[in-house]
Amino acid sequence: MPRRPWIVRKILRMPITESGDQYSVWVGLIYIFNLIVGTGALTLPAAFARAGWGLSTISLVFLAFMSFMNATYVIETMACANAVLKWKRLQFIKRNSTQENDSDDEVTASQHSYGDLEDPLVCGDSIPSRYYSLDKRIELGEMANLFLNKTGRTMFYCTLCVYLYGDLSIYSTAVAKSLMDVICSTVPSNMTNTTDWDILPCFSSPSSSTYTRFDCYRVALLTFFGAIGPFVFFNVQKTKYLQLFTTGMRWLAFAIMISMAIHLLIVYGPQGKPPAFDFTGIPTLFGACVYSFMCHHSLPALISPIRGKNRLGLHLSLDYILISIFYLLLAFTGAFAFASLNDLYTLNFVPTDNENILLKIVEYFLALFPVFTLSTSFPIIAITLRNNLQSLFLDTSRLESYNFILRKLLFPVVAVIPPFLLTYFIEDISILIKFTGSYAGTGIQYLMPTFLVLSARRHCTNLLGLGVVNNYKSPFSNGAWAIFVLLWSFMCIILVSVNMFERNS
């Protein structure tokens, strides 16, 4: 049998990090910030005013904490998945080297070549673990394949696909409608039936009366998919400059809204008088908050390219603290500055004096806010859906063995075409919004991370032993926290059901 110890050394030296450009931890936090802070933040001021400023503040901080806890669960599970794959890789090398080498010297040489990897039996707390890492991007779907049984995997993929497809449909509709509202003439104030908006002419001139608002909506939708859709064929790193540009745009938009609200408070005093506590507004507040802290489905793709993940948990907590302060500032100023609030906060800033050029610019800029925010979130979610569909139907450990169509073309198309077709023919997807942002959102943000981390801990303990230390272990590793999350998830489902019942009644 030929001597091939060099193959063992080559396998050991193969890079395990995800291919593609890496970025600093601060750029990664910008990605996460962009994913969390979207149009959901614009529904917070109205919900904040209904539930009362005291109850809303407590609820928002609590929901931010719950979201952060489950984000740490996702990170811990990803590190566990990396450890399992490294362990399997090491066992494969050991078996091959033992079978292929027929002399003691060759066995000794081979063992020396993989000796830099840990032996689970001798690794202790004093030895930093190299099994656990976040270098290789492992999507939630791959984690489910590793740690959940058949029933759990089925429930996971159903929930994830419903949520991600729903999100892409919601985002594309919001962008297309925002562009349509900017391009077309204002809807007449006497138009009370909102179901007839699509048959109205887009422009007031008689020559263009045949071109309806719905036609403009479709053109805007095609333009959006043509400009943003191709990003789904690449990795998240390729959206870096798009992320940085739109971060500036969204910060400017929020700064304008907060500054104008503060100006109104200084000049006219508090016009809104929200109560301190109004428990009847809890269901609406919950629906707004849980959607405003969602990022868990895309965390693996965002954190794997980060350089220097040693203090990732601390940096992520700072991101959540910043977002919470940002939300509270936006909600507080809006709740007290306006006597009545629209469900979509930007509608409160439509200027009454159209002759004022500055206010006109602000009007258009805020009207385009969903375009700025969702244009960055859309490719991240589409890439996440593509990667999870690949892990569902393909063996990701040998992805390069598949043909070009399967690897590069099929799943990106499958990820973006269904949302496009749905929103091209149907612009009213309110039912999908309710279901996606409530039941599926609760499953993705709370239930799935908890079930995954519990299964991952048990699996890694049985595989590696208690001596191998996971440096990315969640600070909420006590089993009581997991039970608390599960109980809270069921409470969330009840609150969501009550909210939907109240809105339909």
List the helices and strands and how they pair.
Blueprint: H1 5-12, H2 25-36, H3 44-51, H4 53-100, H5 104-113, H6 140-147, H7 150-183, H8 213-228, H9 240-268, H10 282-292, H11 299-303, H12 312-337, H13 357-367, H14 369-393, H15 404-425, H16 430-464, H17 479-504
Helix pairs in contact: 1-4, 1-5, 2-9, 2-12, 3-4, 3-10, 3-12, 4-6, 4-10, 4-12, 4-16, 6-14, 6-16, 7-8, 7-14, 7-15, 7-16, 8-15, 9-12, 9-14, 10-17, 14-15, 16-17
GO cellular component, one term: membrane
Transmembrane segments: 23-48, 60-85, 154-172, 217-236, 248-268, 280-299, 320-341, 361-385, 405-426, 480-501
Keywords: Glycoprotein, Membrane, Transmembrane, Transmembrane helix
What level of helicity do the residues show? 55-70%
For the record, what CATH class applies? Mainly Alpha
Q: What's the CATH topology label?
A: Amino acid/polyamine transporter I
Major β-sheet profile: none
Order of helices and strands: HHHHHHHHHHHHHHHHH
State which percent range the strand residues make up: under 5%
Spatial shape: globular
What is the SS-derived class? Answer: mainly alpha
> Distance between termini?
77 Å
The rounded Rg comes to 26 Å
Report on the structure:
α1 packs parallel to α5, α6 packs parallel to α14 and α10 packs across α17. The radius of gyration is 26 Å and the shape is globular. The N terminus is likely disordered. It has 505 residues and is mainly alpha-helical. The chain contains 17 helices and no strands. The chain has a single domain, classed as Amino acid/polyamine transporter I, CATH 1.20.1740. This is Amino acid transporter transmembrane domain-containing protein. It is a multi-pass membrane protein. Pfam families: Aa_trans. Belongs to the TMEM104 family. Its main location: membrane.
